[in-house]
């Protein structure tokens, strides 16, 4: 049976919020949700004022749609109203996916989208020895987590990450990975037991000529952290779930 006709997998139901697979039929609604809430809450999208640049906006959501269409991202739904209240954009990234050739094929020609996309890729590659010739371990990589303002403060983001862990485990991937770009996201990732791998200051991210690529950023948000968590049959996520209750 085609995945397009399979019922979504429900990963969790807690406090009236149901988290399930994001199907292809959900992509338009998910993109509309991200356009409404993610553009101002994301550190880098806010920094580059993507909301007010049509070409940057279009190219960024081309990338997001490409990631979501394989149906491994997640939706959070209010169980009473059936409205979308959160989106987690994630994708199984096998070793070859992080190569320059693959990643540059994914990125459009828009300059801002290239900076944002390459920043994500470079952080993942930063801890890989001889990065020009080697690939990082395969993982389920969380590219973005977005919640509507009314549902923030309910511990939904760390629960989203726990559900992403379950997705990684179901796909047989050895790791869950996530770039925490804001202080709050970094606290949440640490809270469920994710391990800090590398840290990159926004002001230190430069091109081959040494020119700063991220010249401004919100006060108090000075760096991003690459987090990982081992995934395997012996891992017990109930330990981490109790940390956010």
Sheet of most strands: 8 strands, mixed
Distance between the termini: 38 Å
Which architecture name does CATH use? 3-Layer(aba) Sandwich
Major sheet strand order: 1-2-3-4-5-6-8-7
Percent strand equals 15-25%
Count of extended strands: 8
Q: Fill in the CATH topology.
A: Aminopeptidase
Decide which structural class fits the backbone. alpha+beta
Kindly give the count of domains. Answer: 1
CATH superfamily: Gcn5-related N-acetyltransferase (GNAT)
Task: State the helical fraction.
Answer: 25-40%
CATH class annotation? Alpha Beta
- The radius of gyration over CA amounts to 17 Å
Low-confidence stretches: 1-5, 239-245
Shape designation? globular
Helix tally?
A: 8
SSE order, as H and E? EEHHHEEHHEHEHEEH
Summarize the structure.
The protein has 245 residues and is an alpha+beta fold. The chain has helices at 27-41, 43-47, 54-68, 100-106, 111-125, 156-170, 183-191, 238-243, and strands spanning 10-14, 17-21, 74-78, 84-93, 139-147, 175-180, 195-201, 223-230. It has an 8-stranded mixed sheet, with helices on both faces.
């Amino acid at each position: 049976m085609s995945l397009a006709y399979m019922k979504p997998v429900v990963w969790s139901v807690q406090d009236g919020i149901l988290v399930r697979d994001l199907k292809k039929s959900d992509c338009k609604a998910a993109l509309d949700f991200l356009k409404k809430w993610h553009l101002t809450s994301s550190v880098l999208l806010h920094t580059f004022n993507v909301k007010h640049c049509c070409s940057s906006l279009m190219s960024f959501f081309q990338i997001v749609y490409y990631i979501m269409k394989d149906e491994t991202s997640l939706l959070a739904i209010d169980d009473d109203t059936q409205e979308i209240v959160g989106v987690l954009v994630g994708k199984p990234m096998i070793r070859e996916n992080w190569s320059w050739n693959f990643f540059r094929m994914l990125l459009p020609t828009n300059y801002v989208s290239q900076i944002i996309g390459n920043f994500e890729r470079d952080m993942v590659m930063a801890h890989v020895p001889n990065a020009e010739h080697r690939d990082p371990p395969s993982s389920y990589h969380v590219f973005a987590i977005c919640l509507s303002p009314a549902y923030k403060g309910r511990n939904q983001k760390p629960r989203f990450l726990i559900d992403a862990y379950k997705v990684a485990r179901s796909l047989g991937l050895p790791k869950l990975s996530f770039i925490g770009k804001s202080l709050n996201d970094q606290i949440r990732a640490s809270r469920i037991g994710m391990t800090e791998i590398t840290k990159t200051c926004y002001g230190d991210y430069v091109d081959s000529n040494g020119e700063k690529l991220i010249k401004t950023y919100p006060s108090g948000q000075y760096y991003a952290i690459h987090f990982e968590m081992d995934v395997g049959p012996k891992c017990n996520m109930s330990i981490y779930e109790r940390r956010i209750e």
